[in-house]
């Protein structure tokens, strides 16, 4: 269907591309025929949406959620996106002038460092280490070790589409992974941040609500 497409990103799952001319009905029909009917292909993949311009995204995201498919983030060419669902809108982060952006997967044994925000558009494998003076954003699965605010900045956080790190460091604090098993059937963005001198990990939606209290 013209104006609607799905592109595979070897470092970032699948991106659903939506232009401004497609109606909600056309989008839902496209998702039904190309995504929902191929549920086995997409169920364990990271899914993102790319928009050309201003659009209300709630109906699209809710439709996919009703079929057990979750959108991890939204990328948009316009800064004015009517998004009434708590899904990260990541354009402002990626456009930050001093951020280091790495596109690809970070392999075991590799290290990456930033004097500002660090944005990794891919996966960070186990035994890879990432450091940032400010925030860390992993637009993929994080299984390595992140260290945000590594020069004593506790007002920083670690964001990941899927957070499976054995340990998380923020400033001079350390948190080890809780004793839980993630089966990979649910892709929910998570945020690790500091509160009362402890590192707390919350789902992205819970973190938003927590910070607004």
TrEMBL record:
The keyword RNA-binding does not apply. Residues 102-201 form the Septum formation inhibitor MinC C-terminal domain. The keyword Cell cycle applies. Keywords: Cell cycle, Cell division, Septation. It comes from the Bacteria. It holds the Pfam family MinC_C. GO terms for biological process: cell morphogenesis; division septum assembly; regulation of cell septum assembly. HAMAP family: MinC. Interacts with MinD and FtsZ. Cell division inhibitor that blocks the formation of polar Z ring septums. Rapidly oscillates between the poles of the cell to destabilize FtsZ filaments that have formed before they mature into polar Z rings. Prevents FtsZ polymerization. Belongs to the MinC family. This is Probable septum site-determining protein MinC. The lineage of its organism: Bacteria, Pseudomonadati, Campylobacterota, Desulfurellia, Desulfurellales.
